[in-house]
Amino acid sequence: MIIDARGLRKTYRPRGRRGAAPVEAVRGVDLQVAAGEIVGVLGPNGAGKTTTIRMLATLVAPTGGTATVAGHDLLTSPEQVRRRIGYVGQAGGVDENNTARANLRLAARVDGLTAAEAAARTEELLAAFDLTGPADRPARTLSGGQKRRVAIALGLVHRPPLLFLDEPTTGLDPQNRANLWEQIKTLRDGGTSVLLSTHYLDEADALCDRLVIVDHGVVVAAGTPAELKREVAGDVVSLRVPGTDEAARVLDGLPYTREVRADRGLLRVYLDDGERALPHLLAALAGQGLALESVALDRATLDDVFLHKTGRSLRDAA
Ligand SMILES: Nc1ncnc2c1ncn2[C@@H]1O[C@H](COP(=O)(O)OP(=O)(O)OP(=O)(O)O)[C@@H](O)[C@H]1O
């Protein structure tokens, strides 16, 4: 395991504000990352994702818990950990007035490389992140996607085996997000382990090998995206019916229904084989004189997992 964290906790105690209550941002998180994996911490705003990542990256001192990160104890050997990790925060670490090339060369020199080594590493990273073209423009003139790629390249200058990315695609358009996913996968395929945070369901599903879903500072579910969705149920039938309570009661009583949930006037019925069950569902409602307004059959999504575990949709919570 390149990360093995047990019972991580962080309580912020606001200083200087009399009477301000402490904030329990992270309340006992267990988290493992195997070498060569992309693991995502998924959760709504304020769930404790940034705090968890910053603790593991030695930037915030935990209030409790233990962790081994990149082979070293987080609490007793933070310097050793720091040498073996890369961290890209939400703000990135790019000097806007300098070019991408100068940003990277400086980082490489600070890291102890000779001028020639720094130049070589810079060209390697510019090529890997498709930045050779705009490499000599001031970073402030780069697009959001390009700037984000410079920030990630900066985190990789010293070839860390483990990279932390805090919400790497927030604010990017769909095309740039998809490009960045490919580059993160390429890093993983080259042997770099990645722990990232996200509140995007599609990103968690498409990019991450494994997920830790957090809410209010605790882990509510963990597993591969496929495992998590399977746990909830294979299929979900969404129905709009006047008389939601009555319909829910009828559907809940059917033998193949695993669970029924009401979500903003929409009934979501979880079951294993939606195609086969759907006609029976509709017949049962018609038998009770309940007229349908709409019906849709889908595979369960990660949002269904979140809804199942927390009672609310991540779309509302985020
Ligand atoms: N330095 C701080 N002092 C006090 N409270 C803090 C501090 N940093 C974070 N918090 C609080 O801790 C909780 C968790 O915040 P955190 O940033 O870890 O969540 P998050 O899941 O990363 O959210 P976001 O997606 O908005 O970044 C929030 O209630 C936040 O307001």
UniProtKB/TrEMBL annotation:
**Any GO CC annotation of this UniProt entry:** plasma membrane
The record's keywords, sorted A to Z, are: ATP-binding, Nucleotide-binding, Transport
Keyword ATP-binding in record: yes
Entry-linked InterPro entries: AAA+_ATPase (IPR003593), ABC_transporter-like_ATP-bd (IPR003439), ABC_transporter-like_CS (IPR017871), DrrA (IPR005894), DrrA1/2-like_C (IPR025302), P-loop_NTPase (IPR027417)
Q: Which GO terms describe its molecular function?
A: ATP binding; ATP hydrolysis activity
Q: Which protein are we looking at?
A: ABC-2 type transport system ATP-binding protein
Occurrences of domain ABC transporter (ranges): 3-241
Q: Which NCBIfam families match?
A: drrA
Organism per entry? Microbispora rosea
Give the subcellular location: Cell membrane
One GO BP annotation here?
daunorubicin transport
Where mainly located? membrane
User: Topology relative to the membrane, per the entry?
Assistant: Peripheral membrane protein
Q: Which family does it belong to?
A: Belongs to the ABC transporter superfamily. Drug exporter-1 (DrugE1) (TC 3.A.1.105) family.
Q: Does the keyword ATP-binding apply?
A: yes
